[in-house]
């Protein structure tokens, strides 16, 4: 895992206090291991200030470390990347929503029609006529960001889970249009607004370094507690839209849907980080349980194989009702609940224009 120190502004996760106690009590009627886990969470809480924050904030780092040489990309990340251009003050820039399926397949009635869409943003300068694509994605593909490598020479699971932003000149219209979307969503009325966005992207790219596939919620109902948010290509697009709206970009009113991969669970229990779980003082049984959980899943997968692994996970969580989540380079236990896992393609509306900042 990266050794980057946490950013000064990052919100530290504080271990759970008394609510853990309540959970432990509730777990009494269930399997003994669950009770033990609840106790474990509680023990970790002892002495720590109790403040629960859901969803757990995604941790930001003060810089992006170089990936471990063990992680080797099958496809070079951002092969045609170029620096973000500086736009002229009087330029007007069109902003496009770009979306294309990565893979689709049909799996019985359980998961229905699975469709993983990739999201990106396009820009077109009116002054120069040049256009650009900006996207955020995995350095080592989705499988590597979702499942770790179990290396015989290492005790802890090993993750190749970095994700980053890529900016390059050109928009491949055909690629996005074929089975996806290429549509204008906003207008940037002054070049400096784009330049400010570019500064923000640089910062966002340096501090948000790892990819997270799963959104974890208490149930599929509206208003259900969200335990963990994903951090993927669509989240980057949504953050960028929000930033552009804050800077004063004007958005249209069109429907914009995104792929999300959900897990459903009761309140998660904090287990610890790589050192505390897999180090010499860690709980050996727990360490083995986590490795056993990940064993069936191979990280170095194509997207199609990833979907098949997703199906395996689905079976595993139905039978055992457990899931070990890796988030912020720490492990959590999720007591899984029906419907366990789901992929959706739901609307997340475009932002409204924010008029509070002007005169750029
Ligand atoms: C996933 O990581 C492994 C280990 O570095 C690598 O061999 C493999 O090529 C990666 N998979 C993809 C699709 O990049
Ligand atoms: C984001 O970081 C990656 C990895 O360091 C780098 O390759 C890429 O060019 C950066 N993207 C932008 C838009 O700065
Ligand atoms: C982007 O530029 C290319 C090359 O000029 C052009 O073929 C394409 O239609 C443009 N796409 C958009 C969305 O402006
Ligand atoms: C687009 O959809 C058609 C019909 O489903 C399919 O035959 C084709 O392979 C798809 N193209 C891509 C690039 O996914
Ligand atoms: C507009 O942006 C400012 C500054 O970022 C923010 O404080 C404010 O809440 C935003 N207003 C709306 C309506 O989003
Ligand atoms: C892992 O957790 C232990 C115990 O909570 C802590 O002392 C240590 O600093 C953590 N290590 C990292 C790399 O975060
Ligand atoms: C270690 O973890 C296992 C499985 O999670 C649990 O059953 C056991 O009680 C734990 N042992 C200690 C000493 O916490
Ligand atoms: C987009 O999401 C909305 C609600 O979130 C849904 O009603 C609509 O059917 C979705 N559109 C597509 C094309 O799936």
Structure description:
Residues 1-45 form the signal peptide. 29% of the residues lie in helices and 28% in strands. The protein is globular, with a radius of gyration of 21 Å. The protein is built from nine helices and twelve strands. A hairpin with a 5-residue loop joins strand 2 (112-125) and strand 3 (131-138). The chain is of the alpha+beta class and 360 residues long. It starts with 17 loop residues before the first helix and ends in a 13-residue tail after the last strand. The protein has one domain. It has helices at residues 18-27, 32-45, 141-146, 173-179, 191-207, 233-247, 274-278, 284-294, 303-320; strands at residues 93-107, 112-125, 131-138, 163-169, 181-188, 214-217, 226-228, 250-251, 257-265, 269-273, 322-327, 330-347. The strands form two sheets. A six-stranded antiparallel beta sheet has the order 4-3-2-1-5-8.
């Amino acid at each position: 895992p990266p050794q980057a120190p946490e950013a000064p502004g990052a919100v530290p996760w504080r271990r759970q206090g008394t609510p853990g106690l309540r959970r432990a009590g509730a777990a009494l009627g269930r399997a003994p291991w669950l009770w033990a886990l609840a106790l474990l969470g509680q023990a970790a809480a002892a002495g720590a200030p109790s403040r629960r924050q859901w969803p757990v904030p995604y941790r930001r780092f003060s810089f992006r470390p170089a990936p471990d040489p063990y992680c080797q990309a099958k496809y070079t990340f951002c092969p045609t990347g170029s620096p973000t251009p500086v736009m002229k003050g009087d330029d007007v820039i069109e902003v496009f929503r770009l979306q294309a399926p990565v893979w689709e397949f049909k799996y019985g009635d359980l998961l229905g029609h699975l469709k993983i869409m990739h999201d990106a943003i396009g820009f077109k300068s009116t002054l120069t006529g040049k256009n650009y694509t900006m996207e955020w994605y995995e350095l080592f593909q989705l499988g590597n960001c979702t499942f770790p490598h179990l290396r015989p020479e290492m005790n802890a699971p090993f993750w190749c889970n970095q994700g980053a932003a890529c900016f390059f000149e050109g928009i491949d219209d055909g690629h996005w249009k074929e089975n996806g979307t290429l549509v204008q969503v906003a207008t940037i009325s002054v070049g400096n607004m784009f330049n400010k966005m570019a500064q923000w992207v640089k910062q966002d790219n340096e501090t948000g370094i790892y990819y997270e596939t799963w959104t974890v919620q208490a149930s599929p109902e509206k208003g259900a507690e969200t335990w963990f948010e994903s951090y993927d290509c669509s989240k980057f697009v949504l953050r960028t839209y929000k930033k552009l709206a804050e800077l004063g970009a004007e958005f249209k009113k069109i429907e914009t849907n995104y792929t999300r991969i959900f897990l459903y669970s009761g309140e998660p229990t904090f287990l610890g980080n790589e050192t505390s779980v897999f180090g010499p003082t860690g709980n050996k049984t727990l360490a083995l349980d986590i490795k056993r959980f990940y064993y069936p899943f191979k990280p170095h997968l194509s997207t199609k194989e990833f979907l098949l692994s997703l199906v395996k996970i689905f079976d595993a969580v139905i039978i055992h009702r457990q899931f070990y989540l890796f988030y912020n380079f720490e492990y959590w236990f999720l007591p899984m609940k029906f419907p366990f896992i789901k992929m959706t393609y739901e609307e997340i509306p475009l932002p409204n224009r924010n008029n509070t900042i002007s005169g750029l």
